[in-house]
């Protein structure tokens, strides 16, 4: 069974590929740039696709890849912001739930989530047994990962998100989009984030993207045996 890993940008895809190489996965060679890069070890195959930043690009890229080949699992992976005191810089977060935190409507009484408007869902869960096995193998924090279309840049916004989602561990911009596309194909989604910054006041000088990419590489060096075991039992 094949696994699709979706990142936002090429640097994240490269970090994932470096981890897969550490795990003994090899690429059969150059592939068309618009196609996911394929990595194989024995009968296992993991494809890696940098689909773009934000939920729309992530959903579109995921759906396009899933239309082309049969997958059994999708993973949204990349850097992310960590909520202070929950997910420190350089740590890893595995999503218990992938929640579109700004999908809904603003109102004089505050934010109204899409389900309360009666227009659908704003969250999808990760497979509990798999996410716990992955979290244990990676030494990760398990918690809610919020998908936003605008990265948080103030303490007030961070506090507002935490008040609505007290189990939030991290924030990123693609997970829910990936999961919606995967769910349309009947597939489960994991989200794995390597923490590059704190969710809060915008301070680019405080971002540790290099350390987060190194943590992502380490994660994907450890992840394949867990995925291989799960895919051989589940499918
Ligand atoms: O605020 C800035 O100046 C700034 C500069 C470079 C990049 C950004 C991003 O927001 C990157 C978004 C990109 O990285 C993921 N990511 C990483 N940390 C966060 C976060 O705290 N909140 C949301 N997304 C984050 C995200 O998944 C995107 O792919 C900002």
From TrEMBL:
Q: Which GO terms describe its molecular function?
A: hydrolase activity, acting on glycosyl bonds
EC number annotated for this UniProt entry: 3.2.2.26
Q: Nucleoside phosphorylase domain: from which residue to which, for each copy?
A: 4-203
For whether the record's keyword set contains Membrane, the answer is no
State the pathway, as annotated in the record: Quinol/quinone metabolism; menaquinone biosynthesis
Keyword S-adenosyl-L-methionine listed? The answer is no
What does the UniProt keyword field contain?
A: Glycosidase, Hydrolase, Menaquinone biosynthesis
Q: Which reaction equation describes what this protein catalyses?
A: futalosine + H2O = dehypoxanthine futalosine + hypoxanthine
Summarize the protein's role. Answer: Catalyzes the hydrolysis of futalosine (FL) to dehypoxanthine futalosine (DHFL) and hypoxanthine, a step in the biosynthesis of menaquinone (MK, vitamin K2).
- Family named by the database record: Belongs to the PNP/UDP phosphorylase family. Futalosine hydrolase subfamily.
The name this protein goes by in its record: Futalosine hydrolase
State the species of origin: Streptomyces mauvecolor
């Amino acid at each position: 069974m094949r696994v699709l890993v979706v990142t936002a940008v090429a640097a994240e895809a490269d970090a994932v590929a470096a981890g897969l190489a550490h795990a003994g996965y090899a690429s059969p060679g150059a592939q068309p740039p618009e196609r996911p890069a394929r990595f194989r070890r024995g009968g296992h195959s993991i494809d890696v696709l940098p689909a773009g930043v934000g939920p729309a690009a992530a959903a579109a890229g995921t759906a396009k890849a899933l239309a082309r080949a049969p997958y059994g699992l999708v993973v949204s992976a990349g850097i992310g912001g960590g909520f202070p005191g929950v997910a420190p810089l350089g740590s890893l977060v595995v999503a218990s739930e992938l929640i579109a935190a700004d999908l809904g409507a603003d109102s004089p009484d505050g934010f109204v989530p899409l389900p309360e408007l009666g227009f659908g869902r704003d969250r999808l869960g990760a497979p509990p047994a798999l996410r716990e096995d992955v979290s244990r193998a990676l030494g990760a924090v398990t918690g809610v990962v919020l998908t936003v279309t605008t990265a948080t840049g103030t303490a007030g916004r961070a506090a507002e998100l935490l008040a609505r989602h007290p189990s939030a561990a991290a924030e990123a911009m693609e997970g829910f989009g990936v999961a919606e596309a995967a769910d349309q194909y009947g597939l489960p989604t994991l989200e794995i984030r390597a923490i590059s910054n704190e969710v809060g006041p915008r301070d680019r000088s405080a971002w540790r993207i290099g350390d987060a990419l190194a943590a992502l590489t380490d994660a994907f060096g450890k992840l394949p045996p867990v995925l291989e075991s799960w895919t051989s039992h589940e499918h």
